[in-house]
Structure formats: C-alpha cells, structure tokens
Amino acid sequence: ILNVEQSPQSLHVQEGDSTNFTCSFPSSNFYALHWYRWETAKSPEALFVMTLNGDEKKKGRISATLNTKEGYSYLYIKGSQPEDSATYLCAVQTGANNLFFGTGTRLTVIP
Amino acid sequence: DAGVTQSPTHLIKTRGQQVTLRCSPKSGHDTVSWYQQALGQGPQFIFQYYEEEERQRGNFPDRFSGHQFPNYSSELNVNALLLGDSALYLCASSLTQGLGEQYFGPGTRLTVT
After folding, report:
1. Does the CB of B102 have a partner CB in chain A at under 8 Å?
2. For residues A64 and A72, is the Cβ–Cβ distance under 8 A?
3. pLDDT (tens digit per residue) in A12-41
4. Does the distance separating the beta carbons of A89 and B43 come in below 8 Å?
5. Beta strands in chain B (DSSP E)
6. Which candidate, A57, A30, B5, places its Cα nearest to that of A47?
7. In chain A, what's the furthest Cα-to-Cα distance?
8. Do B104 and A104 touch (CB under 8 A)?
9. pLDDT, tens digit, for every residue of A81-100?
C-alpha cells in the first residue's frame, strides 16, 4: 500500500482566480503520476500522466509538474471557471501497474 | 467508440447476500482493474485482470473475486456482503503495453443494508 496525500482537501475560489493543489507520495517504486478530474455523477477523466522528474504537462488552463526526487506533483488552474468545479485526484502508478489514489481535492469555483 | 461501461448503476443488497458487478472495457483495451471508493476516501485498488487471469490484487479479502472473459469484459463478485462493503465500485480499462493509462467507467453504487 502506497500513502498518497493530497492537499488541500477542499477549497473554494472565485471565478477568475488561479489556484493549485499538491500531491505528495513516497519516491520509492515510482513509475508514473496520474491526475484525474472527477465531476459529480460522471467518470473520472484523465488529465495528465507524467513519468520523469521535472516533467511538465499543460492542457488549456490546466498544467501540472512532477518532482520524483522529493515526491510531489502540483496541479495548477489558471483563471478558474465554474466548469472547473470537480474533485481532482492524483494517483501513483508503481512498477506493478496499479494505481494508488489520494483522497482528492474538491474544488468549487464561485461565479 | 464506447468508453468504459458498467452495470448496474445502483444496487441495494442485504447483509450476507452475494453481488455481481459488470464492466465492459474501452474498445481495444485488454486489461481491467477494479477499485472500491468508500465515502470520503480515494479509490482503493481491488484487483486487475489480464488475459483472463488475476494479475495483481490489493488488500481485499477472498470474498472479493473476479473474472475476465475472452472479450475482455469483467465481473466483480462479492460474497457474504457486509455493511462496510457499501461503496462506489469503479472499473478501469487500459492497455498492458505503454504507460497503462486507465480509463474509468461511471461506477456502480452498492448499498448494503
């Protein structure tokens, strides 16, 4: 079992604000880091997969970075919109190819 | 191209009963993983199937079993249901080759009374 921690647990931001979340994990036996967005009553949607230390990925207003040496990843949302409201999950993939999830960060963007 | 589908959407069972949940993977995917998400927690890995065999297993009792069929679809069976088995059960499919990026279904909400 891998202990993956996410912070904050939840946050509320005003529309237009930028925000970021943290995912922390043990560095040992690391293969990849996944970020998912999960809207209520829908399937978790894959955002990014990162494998190398220093990796950065971007999709529109959302970006992510990875530091495997210190065991953390940041997810950034620039200019938050109400449709960004969701739970953001990170998961660590070990060499065994299964995912260990954090408990998620619930984001609410207030119009 | 259909994504991952799961059935049923919701299910209510009584303690001690048995339940079977079903999953059809995304077209072209050969690996199916099952996760349990209890209230307030992240999804917990139950097991993974590839080539009709259980390839990996998380920290779940033997009451949880599964099956993968030749068309890659999968079932999750839970025997002797406990109240604590109430959760959202997620199925995810992936390709064994490559990064193993997993695509999730919408889940089955199981309530044990």
Report:
1. yes
2. no
3. 999 999 999 999 999 888 889 999 999 988
4. yes
5. 5-7, 10-13, 19-24, 31-37, 44-50, 53-57, 64-68, 74-78, 87-94, 103-104, 108-112
6. A57
7. 42
8. no
9. 999 999 999 999 987 677 89
